[in-house]
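FIELD: query
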Amino acid sequence: MREDQDLRAVREALIEDGKFGINVGGAEGRFLQFLVGVSRAKVVVEVGVLYGYSTLWMAKALPSDGRIYAIERDEINFKRAQQLISKSEVGDKIELLQGDAREVLTQLQVQPDLVFIDADKLNYRHYLEWAMKAVPVGGVIVGDNTFLFGHMIGEDRGEKVSPTAFESMKYFNTTLAQASNFRAVMIPTYEGMTLAQRIK
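FIELD: result
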């Protein structure tokens, strides 16, 4: 997908530091941007930032008074994201929060219109439990990597995962699929992306 200068700077930093590929791709970033726009989200919570590639995609779809609360546990990634986002044209819409997301989320006093989860797979179930309570009717939850490197769809892509991570992702997908107050769908990107909207 076409990148502007801000997004290109993040991608180049990821390549330079040997972390490119961990981030969402351009197509997924554009899709997230579309979701923010079509849902008319004003408040977004992102769990897992890396260098802020997906953060910037989403921020660029927010209205002038919109805000993203972006949580990153790793201190090195957090500092790099700070540097890159501060130079972007939407830096004032992004509040970076450093720490363990399970702890940060309990202290976050916001009602998100959209929650994007792209962090450690072991804790997807915990992030989901918070998100399902936090989003209002009409709110959207998005989880990336929900194929869990192929393990959720019976493919072996050479990536080992722990039984705990497997059960956590299974819980994430199954819970959203079965929840009567959410409408969910799984998008067959290479990594898998699960979306759900609260309907009641």
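FIELD: remark
The mean pLDDT is 94.
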